[in-house]
Design goal:
About 65% of the residues lie in helices and about 0% in strands. It is mainly α and about 250 residues long. It folds into 2 domains: about 1-100, no CATH class; about 100-253, no CATH class. Bound molecules: zinc ion (ZN).
């Protein structure tokens, strides 16, 4: 498969523009505000941003991370999300090339970036993203643009959603329903083999991070850590290396 660095750069730039939109989504979706209008505004002084305040990455650096009107510091999250989305978009292109699977991967993976940041901040995974990704898993399998046959997509949805639903019930709210819906999305997109591997990886990542944070005394035993971001990191890892990991984890393919 041929990929070019010119295309990769173009995908990076497009990704930063999508990331700029994701910042609006992260800010407005949990508050139930429209993500289309009005134009971006400063949350402090409410001044509408001009188009040249909205250029991904460049504007943040040019304004030194402050509002152009009131000099209120802008969260470094804005720059982080733009950079991260740009890098993710280029990496997805480099892995999948200009193929039908590229569409599957972009539609699945990019919206998970705002989902991770919303979960970190508000401890919720929006239905529009988790259920949307589940439906996309089924639709993309039906269209044969995902790597998963349609039968596996349905089986994966039931197995992965089922496992986390059981954990949610047994842990009495230790795991939220948003995590269950995201698990169903993982199964629908990857099938049960890569799906279960991805869930195992997310539990491992979550446990290791929890222990490290406790050792560093950043978090106590009782503190809540959102689980969605670990699932989302695992989904990214599995989108790139899922087959190899599943072969290793399940011992067979
Ligand atoms: Zn301002």
């Amino acid at each position: 498969m041929k990929v070019s660095w010119i295309n990769a750069t173009a995908f990076f730039v497009l990704g930063t523009i999508v990331g700029s939109f994701f910042n609006v989504v992260i800010h407005r979706l949990p508050q139930g505000e429209s993500i289309i209008s009005p134009r971006s505004y400063c949350p402090k002084c409410r001044n509408r941003l001009k188009w040249y305040h909205n250029i991904p990455i460049i504007s943040y650096i040019a304004l030194r991370g402050r509002c152009a009107f009131c000099s209120e510091p802008i969260s470094p999250r804005y720059l982080t999300v733009e950079l991260l989305t740009g890098i993710a978009t280029a990496a997805i292109y480099l892995h999948f090339g200009l193929s039908p699977q590229l569409i599957w991967a972009l539609v699945l993976l990019l919206p998970l970036i705002p989902a991770a940041f919303i979960d970190l901040k508000h401890y919720i995974l929006p239905d529009s993203i988790t259920i949307g990704c589940t439906l996309w898993g089924i639709a993309s399998a039906a269209l044969s643009i995902s790597p998963t046959p349609i039968k596996d997509a349905f089986l994966g949805l039931l197995v992965c959603g089922g496992i986390f639903f059981l954990i949610a019930v047994l842990s009495k709210g230790g795991m939220g329903l948003g995590d269950v819906k995201l698990a169903a999305a993982i199964g629908a997109n990857f099938g049960w083999k890569i799906g279960v591997t991805s869930l195992f990886l997310s539990v491992l990542l979550g446990a290791v991070t929890g222990i490290v944070l406790m050792l560093l005394r950043k978090k106590g035993r009782k503190d809540k850590i959102p689980f969605g971001p670990f699932m989302i990191v695992s989904i990214y890892i599995c989108a790139f290396f899922g087959r190899e990991l599943a072969r290793w984890y399940l011992g067979s393919w």
